[in-house]
């Protein structure tokens, strides 16, 4: 790993006051810097994308404050504690998913929320953390790489929540939860032969999914992805307008607050799933390149922290959470730029909305905890 | 045991390191792929998407031009554009639509019909479009709403220009009217120039001069959002208003002509014989063209369509009537010019005429006959027998050939659409249309303007004007000048080239015109009652049969239903010495030309020749 991603607090001989405070709070400065920059950029873009709606910006700022709070809290919990909680958290998550489906039978259509009266809670979000924690806990019990039997059990443990979420139906979240689990398997040393075999089985499986496992709207999404012009005023409209927004941004963009596609409402979901197109339109290729560099920095820092972790559980969990963050980014940007199907995944830390924001920041909290609760070993 | 754990730890750590590096490489690779996609969209195809983005937001809106005005020869306005106020509601801005309409109806009358139209339009238009709930508000309604405006957010008064014809009934058949563009008109108009226009000339001058009156559309480039709402104007090209028309028509004369008919139906056309300028073109009854501008209601249209007086029928241009005796001066002139008769030679009139070897009696209007009579008296007293014989001697071919010179049987080419050409029968025509040969008896009745012979009032007036000028045949026209855009004064239209008819002898023309003056001035003239000391009139009365009287029957005016009665006709020009006006009048089912039609012509000539314009 590159030197730039090395921890600051450990090798320095005399830490400054600020660094001391960060160490006391169990925070990692490079990761924190990247996150703050990204979220700050998100707020600036949201101000433009929302049509200078200060109220919306304020709501997002409050959510960000809350999410950073959750991150700080998570950073205080040692991984040993998290590890002990893992199976319980997973069990509770599964039960809540079943509860959501039961309630969903009553109200027609997609059911993702559990209304607790004062608070609306989306259990599938919890699984984004609980699944990698569970799989990491399960695989770390025995030595790695995992044996065939363990692998099968782990696969089953992933499949149950994924199917429950897909049934809501929430394609985006089930994809993220599945990838979280699979990343743990991958990092645990899943053999390349097995991976190759899985890919070969995936092709007929995908065909079967297409035939029997997909809702009509999901199939339509795939079809319009392949040819958006097929239905330019319906499902293809999003992608067509988004590509126009990105393309018309050019190298330097139309300037902040000057995006016509977004301000004149041609671009749908411009504050949420399609906010990437707003950035591309207003800040151009240079802006997007800067944004992606920021993301790459955060991801590489995450992977570095995971690789420096002192126990298998922490390594697997930290690596998986970082890679899930990348999946968010790639699925969203791939969708908005028209190279991946339209799947409702937000641009992490930038899209308007609170649920996934809190989960993601909780994940970074865990990463910080992994990094800051290490016991110094003699070298 | 701790040693084994440590060994496992190192191995697992190394395994993880490898996997993490693989993952990092995959991340970089995939994001690189994404960057390539963005290069493709933002740099390579940038121009293409910029165009699409611009097309999305920039829309071109037409600005309709204001329609040209129409004036009479003295500058009196005949067609104008008046602001009409409509009360409009923007549904998006109204909280409770039903309640708003209910409170509105307390200060402004809103009928069931208005409500229905509002609901219909509401379905067609977008939420931020304003929809009229009442059109053509009265002044006091506008004022009443203005005071209460604050109570009605989202309700507003909108003014737009509507075509208005101040003289209404009186000029309807000359000007025609405008109405909403229909499907078939959409096929033929230049749709880009009409993109902002809702109305088009349907009949009359409004239709003939549509291209001049309409003007050129202006364009406004606006920025719109995804819903089509206009955000701001980017740039605009103002429209070029339509050109104003100046008619030769005299509005006051037109009024007099229409008024002179009283309750009768018919038509009167007055022409300046020197130029062919139409001075008045009356068709009674008229109709209110203003009804058509905003779309006539079905019940109003049904009334107009089903009325037995046929108010929509333009009698002056499209009414085809037998000319009756009004054609006698022309046939007399034909006789003289072809050398068939001379002016003083007498024929004997026993009250009827029989062709050699035929028993059928062609009656004279005067049962007892006129006795020996020359051409002059035959015109003055309208002797039928003289003209039966003249026509017989001349034959159909010569008769047809001569009358054709005066424009009978063909359109006058006046600059108002819809004119009909009448019918001047000939051998060829009969063979073609009726597939039989020409009978000599048909020549006789043509000699008195009956039979197949049909003329329009306009043709009669035009032929009379040609006679008055001793052969100067002008093409009649209504529009004499057009005011070009930006110019202060109207430009006169170039005169259409006039045709001069061949003259055998000027005396012949003088003689016929003299006989026509005797119709008014002679003791036994059929129109002597309209004689005036102010100026001299030359004229000819006529009666056109609607109903054929059988051989042994009498025509008894009293016993015949009004609509079966004869049409009364009169043609005239004045002053005889220097003709300034030629008139043709037809009164449908009016009876005798001398008593019914001639006074109308006199009233028109009086107005034109002796009264100063107001």
From TrEMBL, chain A:
<dbReference type="GO" id="GO:0008955">
    <property type="term" value="F:peptidoglycan glycosyltransferase activity"/>
</dbReference>
<keyword id="KW-0812">Transmembrane</keyword>
<dbReference type="InterPro" id="IPR011923">
    <property type="entry name" value="RodA/MrdB"/>
</dbReference>
<dbReference type="GO" id="GO:0051301">
    <property type="term" value="P:cell division"/>
</dbReference>
<dbReference type="GO" id="GO:0071555">
    <property type="term" value="P:cell wall organization"/>
</dbReference>
<protein>
    <recommendedName>
        <fullName>Peptidoglycan glycosyltransferase MrdB</fullName>
        <ecNumber>2.4.99.28</ecNumber>
    </recommendedName>
</protein>
<dbReference type="GO" id="GO:0009252">
    <property type="term" value="P:peptidoglycan biosynthetic process"/>
</dbReference>
<feature type="transmembrane region" description="Helical">
    <location>
        <begin position="173"/>
        <end position="195"/>
    </location>
</feature>
<dbReference type="GO" id="GO:0008360">
    <property type="term" value="P:regulation of cell shape"/>
</dbReference>
<keyword id="KW-0808">Transferase</keyword>
<feature type="transmembrane region" description="Helical">
    <location>
        <begin position="150"/>
        <end position="166"/>
    </location>
</feature>
<feature type="transmembrane region" description="Helical">
    <location>
        <begin position="316"/>
        <end position="343"/>
    </location>
</feature>
<comment type="similarity">
    <text>Belongs to the SEDS family. MrdB/RodA subfamily.</text>
</comment>
<feature type="transmembrane region" description="Helical">
    <location>
        <begin position="85"/>
        <end position="106"/>
    </location>
</feature>
<keyword id="KW-0133">Cell shape</keyword>
<feature type="transmembrane region" description="Helical">
    <location>
        <begin position="283"/>
        <end position="304"/>
    </location>
</feature>
<keyword id="KW-0472">Membrane</keyword>
<feature type="transmembrane region" description="Helical">
    <location>
        <begin position="126"/>
        <end position="144"/>
    </location>
</feature>
<keyword id="KW-1003">Cell membrane</keyword>
<dbReference type="InterPro" id="IPR018365">
    <property type="entry name" value="Cell_cycle_FtsW-rel_CS"/>
</dbReference>
<keyword id="KW-0961">Cell wall biogenesis/degradation</keyword>
<keyword id="KW-0573">Peptidoglycan synthesis</keyword>
TrEMBL record, chain B:
<protein>
    <recommendedName>
        <fullName>Peptidoglycan D,D-transpeptidase MrdA</fullName>
        <ecNumber>3.4.16.4</ecNumber>
    </recommendedName>
</protein>
<dbReference type="GO" id="GO:0008658">
    <property type="term" value="F:penicillin binding"/>
</dbReference>
<comment type="similarity">
    <text>Belongs to the transpeptidase family. MrdA subfamily.</text>
</comment>
<dbReference type="InterPro" id="IPR005311">
    <property type="entry name" value="PBP_dimer"/>
</dbReference>
<keyword id="KW-0812">Transmembrane</keyword>
<keyword id="KW-0573">Peptidoglycan synthesis</keyword>
<keyword id="KW-0472">Membrane</keyword>
<feature type="domain" description="Penicillin-binding protein dimerisation">
    <location>
        <begin position="62"/>
        <end position="234"/>
    </location>
</feature>
<keyword id="KW-0961">Cell wall biogenesis/degradation</keyword>
<dbReference type="InterPro" id="IPR017790">
    <property type="entry name" value="Penicillin-binding_protein_2"/>
</dbReference>
<dbReference type="GO" id="GO:0071555">
    <property type="term" value="P:cell wall organization"/>
</dbReference>
<dbReference type="InterPro" id="IPR036138">
    <property type="entry name" value="PBP_dimer_sf"/>
</dbReference>
<dbReference type="InterPro" id="IPR050515">
    <property type="entry name" value="Beta-lactam/transpept"/>
</dbReference>
<dbReference type="InterPro" id="IPR012338">
    <property type="entry name" value="Beta-lactam/transpept-like"/>
</dbReference>
<keyword id="KW-1003">Cell membrane</keyword>
<dbReference type="Pfam" id="PF03717">
    <property type="entry name" value="PBP_dimer"/>
</dbReference>
<keyword id="KW-0133">Cell shape</keyword>
<keyword id="KW-0121">Carboxypeptidase</keyword>
<dbReference type="GO" id="GO:0008360">
    <property type="term" value="P:regulation of cell shape"/>
</dbReference>
<keyword id="KW-0378">Hydrolase</keyword>
<comment type="function">
    <text>Catalyzes cross-linking of the peptidoglycan cell wall.</text>
</comment>
<dbReference type="GO" id="GO:0009252">
    <property type="term" value="P:peptidoglycan biosynthetic process"/>
</dbReference>
């Amino acid at each position: 790993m590159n030197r730039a991603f090395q921890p600051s607090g450990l090798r320095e001989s005399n830490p400054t006051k600020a660094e001391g405070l960060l160490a006391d709070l169990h925070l990692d400065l490079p990761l924190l810097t990247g996150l703050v920059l990204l979220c700050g950029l998100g707020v600036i873009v949201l101000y433009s994308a929302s049509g200078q709606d200060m109220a919306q910006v304020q709501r997002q700022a409050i959510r960000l404050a809350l999410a950073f709070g959750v991150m700080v809290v998570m950073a205080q919990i040692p991984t040993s504690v998290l590890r002990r909680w893992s199976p319980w958290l997973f069990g509770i998550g599964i039960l809540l998913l079943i509860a959501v489906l039961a309630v969903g039978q009553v109200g027609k259509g997609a059911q993702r929320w559990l209304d607790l009266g004062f608070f609306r809670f989306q259990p599938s979000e919890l699984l984004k953390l609980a699944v990698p924690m569970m799989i990491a806990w399960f695989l770390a019990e025995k030595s790695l790489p995992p044996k065939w039997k363990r692998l099968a059990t782990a696969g089953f443990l992933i499949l149950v929540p994924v199917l429950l979420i897909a049934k809501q139906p929430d394609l985006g979240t089930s994809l993220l939860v599945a990838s979280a689990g699979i990343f743990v398997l991958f990092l645990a040393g899943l053999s390349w032969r097995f991976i190759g075999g899985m890919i070969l089985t995936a092709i007929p499986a995908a065909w079967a999914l297409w035939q029997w496992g997909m809702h009509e709207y999901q199939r339509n999404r795939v079809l319009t992805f392949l040819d958006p012009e097929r239905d330019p005023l319906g499902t293809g409209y999003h992608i067509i307008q988004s590509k126009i927004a990105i393309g018309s941004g050019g190298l330097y963009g139309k300037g902040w607050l000057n995006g016509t596609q977004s301000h004149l409402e041609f671009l749908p979901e411009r504050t949420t799933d399609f906010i990437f197109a707003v950035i591309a339109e207003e800040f151009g290729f240079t802006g997007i390149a800067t944004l992606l560099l920021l993301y790459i920095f955060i991801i590489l820092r995450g992977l570095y922290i995971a690789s420096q972790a002192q126990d298998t559980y922490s390594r697997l969990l930290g690596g998986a959470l970082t890679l899930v963050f990348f999946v968010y980014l790639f699925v969203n940007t791939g969708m908005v730029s028209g190279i991946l199907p339209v799947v409702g995944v937000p641009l992490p830390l930038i899209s308007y909305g609170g649920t996934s924001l809190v989960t993601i920041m909780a994940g970074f909290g865990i990463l910080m905890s992994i990094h800051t609760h290490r016991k110094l070993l003699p070298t | 045991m701790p040693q084994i754990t440590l060994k496992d730890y190192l191995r697992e750590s190394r395994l993880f390191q490898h996997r993490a590096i693989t993952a990092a490489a995959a991340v970089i690779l995939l994001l690189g792929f994404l960057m390539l996609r963005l290069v493709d969209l933002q740099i390579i195809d940038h121009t293409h998407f910029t165009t699409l983005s611009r097309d999305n937001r920039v829309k071109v809106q037409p600005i309709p031009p204001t329609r040209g005005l129409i004036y009479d020869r003295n500058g009196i306005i005949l067609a104008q554009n008046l602001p009409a106020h409509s009360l409009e509601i923007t549904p998006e801005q109204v909280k409770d639509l039903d309640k708003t309409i209910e409170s509105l109806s307390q200060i402004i009358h809103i009928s069931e019909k208005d409500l229905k139209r509002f609901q219909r339009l509401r379905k067609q238009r977008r939420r931020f479009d304003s929809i009229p709930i009442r059109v053509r508000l009265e002044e006091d309604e506008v004022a009443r709403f203005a005071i209460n405006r604050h109570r009605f957010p989202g309700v507003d008064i909108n003014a737009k220009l509507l075509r208005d014809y101040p003289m209404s009934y009186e000029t309807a058949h000359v000007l025609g009217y405008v109405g909403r563009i229909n499907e078939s008109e959409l096929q033929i108009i230049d749709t880009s120039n009409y993109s902002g226009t809702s109305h088009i000339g349907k009949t009359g001058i409004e239709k003939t001069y549509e291209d001049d009156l309409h003007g050129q559309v202006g364009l406004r480039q606006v920025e719109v959002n995804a819903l089509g709402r206009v955000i701001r104007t980017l740039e605009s090209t103002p429209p070029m208003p339509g050109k104003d028309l100046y008619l030769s028509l005299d509005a006051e004369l037109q009024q007099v002509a229409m008024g002179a008919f009283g309750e009768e139906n018919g038509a009167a056309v007055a022409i300046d014989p020197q130029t062919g300028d139409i001075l008045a073109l009356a068709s009674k009854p008229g109709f209110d063209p203003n009804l058509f501008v905003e779309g006539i209601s079905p019940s109003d249209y049904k009334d107009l369509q089903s009325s037995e007086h046929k108010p929509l029928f333009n009698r002056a241009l499209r009414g085809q009537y037998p000319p009756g005796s009004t054609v006698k001066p022309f046939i007399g002139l034909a006789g003289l010019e072809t050398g068939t008769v001379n002016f003083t030679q007498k024929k004997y009139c026993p009250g009827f005429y029989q062709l050699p070897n035929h028993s059928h009696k062609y009656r004279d209007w005067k049962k007892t006959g006129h006795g020996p009579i020359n051409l002059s008296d035959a015109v003055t007293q309208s002797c039928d027998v003289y003209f039966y014989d003249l026509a017989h001697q001349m034959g159909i071919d010569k008769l047809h050939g001569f009358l054709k010179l005066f424009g009978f049987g063909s359109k006058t080419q006046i600059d108002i659409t819809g004119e009909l050409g009448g019918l001047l029968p000939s051998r060829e025509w009969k063979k073609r249309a009726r597939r039989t040969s020409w009978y000599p008896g048909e020549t006789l009745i043509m000699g008195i303007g009956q039979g197949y012979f049909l003329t329009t009032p306009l043709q009669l007036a035009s032929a009379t004007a040609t006679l008055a000028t001793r052969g100067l045949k002008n093409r009649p026209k209504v529009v004499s000048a057009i005011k070009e855009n930006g110019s202060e004064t109207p430009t006169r239209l170039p005169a259409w080239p006039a045709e001069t008819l061949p003259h055998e002898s000027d005396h012949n023309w003088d003689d016929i015109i003299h006989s026509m003056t005797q119709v008014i001035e002679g003791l036994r003239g059929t129109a002597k009652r309209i004689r005036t000391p102010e100026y001299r009139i030359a004229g000819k009365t006529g009666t056109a049969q609607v109903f054929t009287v059988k051989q042994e029957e009498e025509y008894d005016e009293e016993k015949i239903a009004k609509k079966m009665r004869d049409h009364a006709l009169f043609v005239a020009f004045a002053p005889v010495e220097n003709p300034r006006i030629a008139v043709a009048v037809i009164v449908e089912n009016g009876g005798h030309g001398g008593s019914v039609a001639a006074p109308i012509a006199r009233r028109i000539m009086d107005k034109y020749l002796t009264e100063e314009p107001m």
